[in-house]
């Protein structure tokens, strides 16, 4: 028994020493030893080999490429008036008359079938489909068939992910969080000064770098000259809680959110001691004017870190950008847009909070191969004269979607949990009522 304890103690000591020398020290100084790059190259070669082995069993490769699409239906996005006008015209109906026509039924039936078969909103809250198998559980049904060689590689991969990577990543995450709590608490005891701000930023950066390496992150930052500056607001598309770690790995931000209890509460209080963050009590979150006031006070103080906000308000599956809530764009100041795009080949970063709790999500992330993503810093944007908050939010959203190669949608991400608001239904009813009573029919006729 004594010999076993000695062996276990030696193994644990060697384990921590390797972690400290190969990972923690490079994280503190912000350098890379090339281990992650080598790991990614081996991983890419392995996944390419597995994909080729699977594709070899298919006789019709063209059919394989078509069936591996993401399943999004190509729809006609023309306005209701134009489509209904076209149906009436094709049936030789008089467009000048504003009566109800049976041909109108085809339009509503078509839209109904589209929503049932492939709703463009709810599909954004499910994992993005892959065009090849990544030796994880999520895959296209065409890749369920594997050869015995690929099966052997999968078994080896399970052992590596759960018996080597998982313990390593849990250790790193524990060290990173402990570093943040202890370091921020100690820094918080110092008087306000430049030294305190510098130490606070160092503590936050090192913590996020350690946590990023706990996920085997491979992050590429583009256009760093546009990085958010103090006294501004950073807005980004939202896929996962890990978005914060991805962005804070390259710079420090002030966080905005609700006060929590438990471990999260301990972390929040430690962070608040070291540098100004904006935490709200649950009752304060309902007071819109109070929230706007506190955020505006923070933004217009050029000595404070830029605020990090995700205007979508919920996680989207990294294929789209949904409606930006206007609150972030009513505050004023400079907006620094950021586009984040994950590579789903190595792991699914999307968190569906309505189906998976945080523990199961983190377990899935820590047993994935890696986390690869691109981050684009866009040029700063300001609200133009005579531009309201809604149009400004849409302009920023369009820029992020275009840069990240994401689909731009006007729907509210809150539909993941709530039903469609009556406002949207009433708008469609109003548009159709205008057709029935004959309004705008002559203009549609002239256009067609």
Q: Explain this structure to me?
A:
The protein is an alpha/beta fold and 448 residues long. The chain is 50% helix and 10% strand. It has 15 helices and 9 strands. It has helices at 2-29, 35-55, 61-67, 80-90, 104-117, 148-187, 194-213, 242-248, 262-274, 282-285, 288-299, 358-366, 389-404, 422-436, 441-447; strands spanning 217-222, 232-236, 254-258, 278-280, 307-309, 320-321, 334-343, 371-377, 407-408. Helix 1 (2-29) packs across helix 7 (194-213) and helix 6 packs antiparallel against helix 7 (194-213). The protein is globular and about 90 Å long. The N and C termini lie far apart (88 Å).
Order of helix and strand elements from N to C terminus: HHHHHHHEEHEHEHHEEEHEHEHH
Number of DSSP strand runs: 9
**Biggest β-sheet, characterized?**
7 strands, mixed
Shape: globular
Average of the residue pLDDT scores: 78
- Across the major sheet, the strand order is 1-8-7-2-5-3-4
First-to-last CA distance: 88 Å
Write down the oligomeric state: single chain
Beta-strand percentage? 5-15%
Q: How helical, in percent, are the residues?
A: 40-55%
Alpha-carbon Rg, integer: 26 Å
The secondary structure category is alpha/beta
Q: Which helices and strands occur, and which strands form pairs?
A:
Blueprint: H1 2-29, H2 35-55, H3 61-67, H4 80-90, H5 104-117, H6 148-187, H7 194-213, E1 217-222, E2 232-236, H8 242-248, E3 254-258, H9 262-274, E4 278-280, H10 282-285, H11 288-299, E5 307-309, E6 320-321, E7 334-343, H12 358-366, E8 371-377, H13 389-404, E9 407-408, H14 422-436, H15 441-447
Parallel strand pairs: 1-8, 2-5, 2-7, 3-4, 3-5, 6-9
Antiparallel strand pairs: 7-8
Helix pairs in contact: 1-7, 6-7, 6-9
